[in-house]
Each structure stands twice: as C-alpha cells, then as structure tokens.
Amino acid sequence: MQTQLGKWGNSTGLRIPAEMLVHLGGDKNARVEISPLPEGGLLIRPVVQAQPCSKTPAEWAEQLRALQRSMPVGHSVVRQMRDEEL
Questions:
Q1: Handedness of CA 48, 54, 60, 66 (dihedral sign)
Q2: Global pTM?
Q3: Any idea what the Cα angle at residue 28 is, between residues 43 and 1, rounded to 5°?
Q4: Taking the domains of the chain in order of start, what are their residue ranges?
Q5: pLDDT per residue of the chain (86 residues) written in tens, 0 to 9
Q6: For 5-46, which CATH class?
C-alpha cells in the first residue's frame, strides 16, 4: 500500500490509511514508536502503555501481609553464618 508524506508544521507527517490504522488499535491518536530498519525503511509499532493500578494502598499492604504469612519461617541466615565462623 502506498501513501504520501506531507508537511505538518516544521515536521513531515506520514498519512496512515484507515485500513492500516486497525493494526495500531484503531485509535487515530495512538502513540507509536518508529525505528529505522537496517535494510532501509521504517518499522512502526504501537506503544503499549501500562494499565493504571487499581489497588488502594490498603489493598497492597494486605497483599504484602498475606505473602509474608505464606513465607516459610527458617533460621536466620546472618545468625547461621555468624555461628559457622566460630
């Protein structure tokens, strides 16, 4: 598929046909990453943004407490190393 470059302020813009926009998630305001290819040409990929965290600080704290409770209790490594030195 061919398209055309055009002036956009002090830059040059690339028009992406609607049929190709589907590959970027269909969002005309999507952020993309453009990389040069060694053999010439450009690689255009959508930028995957991290999903916002939906947990509250209290929920994080409770998850950490639950993980701590699930950890096996063993001997202190520092104490064991100190005892081995004697």
A1: negative
A2: 0.47
A3: 50
A4: 5-46
A5: 888 899 989 999 888 888 888 877 778 888 889 999 999 999 988 888 777 778 889 999 999 999 888 887 777 777 777 888 76
A6: mainly beta
